[in-house]
Amino acid sequence: MKATLLRWWDSDVGYSLRTSPMALVAAAVALVCVFCALFAPWVAPYNPFDLATLELSDARLPPAWSEHGSAKYLLGTDDQGRDILSALIYGARISLVVGIASVLLSVVVGVALGLLAGFTGGWIDGLLMRLCDVMLSFPAILVALLIAGVGRALLPNAHESLAFGVLIVSISLTGWVQYARTVRGSTLVERNKEYVQAARVTGVAPLTIMRRHVLPNVMGPVLVLATIQVATAIITEATLSFLGVGAPPTSPSLGTLIRVGNDYLFSGEWWITVFPGLMLVLIALSVNLLGDWLRDALNPRLR
């Protein structure tokens, strides 16, 4: 493992990361957010969703550096007395899990369909591309809102895991289209190259050619697109939660925290919604910057 990391650090991509201050800062911020999200029970000062530990007398306390703030709550509390800092850590974990899971599902579906369309061609290619055109004609947030809303309406008492599954599927329903079109375009180029023709002549099965030969050569753009789409998926999840059809109320994400704080924004309790909003912007910005760096690092023309 150590030798592999050292080899990657000395590669062209590793050198690009070392010489890009913006990418290093973005990677550090993203790693801190992921670390806090993964180890939230140990990193967070409190468990903000444990009803037994909430104190309504501490509700709507300002940040610790304010005049009426408390040293117990660094970023203040919300309307139920929950520690804002702890809520951000737990909320970021939910947003990251939903965002990454929805992108992984979109990648699996989009890459498989794009590879099939580009390699086989014919009516299969035409049918899948028309399906992509239909999906692109609908706004992604509208489709996600419809699916998540219908899922919540049909299964109002569903377990949290099922509710998160509906949310992930609703975000992935339109996300796979970009991967399918990207992989199809790359596959159309790769399928006519000599190594693919040689594999066909030697009798290798088409499925094996797609999996062993074509797929590794079309994954570069997919990795870049997936990195950027993680931020989009997180923002989509936050939007759905803000509208009330996202994460369950018992496990609020950053979007839910922003929606709760929005009711108190004009009454002076700005910290309830400002800090979750800043956390969402920080995560999305760091992931987008990493995606931009990865796009440049994997482009041989910019080396």
UniProtKB/TrEMBL annotation:
One of its GO terms (cellular component) is plasma membrane. Its main location: membrane. It is a multi-pass membrane protein. Residues 92-291 form the ABC transmembrane type-1 domain. InterPro entries: BP-dependent_transpt_permease, MetI-like, MetI-like_sf, OppC_N. The chain crosses the membrane at residues 21-44, 94-119, 131-155, 161-179, 218-243, 270-294. It comes from the Bacteria. Keywords: Cell membrane, Membrane, Transmembrane, Transmembrane helix, Transport. SUPFAM superfamilies: MetI-like (SSF161098). It holds the Pfam family OppC_N. The keyword Membrane applies. It is found in: Cell membrane. The keyword Transmembrane helix applies. GO terms for biological process: transmembrane transport. Belongs to the binding-protein-dependent transport system permease family. PANTHER family: ABC TRANSPORTER PERMEASE PROTEIN (PTHR43386:SF26), OLIGOPEPTIDE TRANSPORT SYSTEM PERMEASE PROTEIN APPC (PTHR43386). This is Peptide/nickel transport system permease protein. It comes from Simplicispira metamorpha.
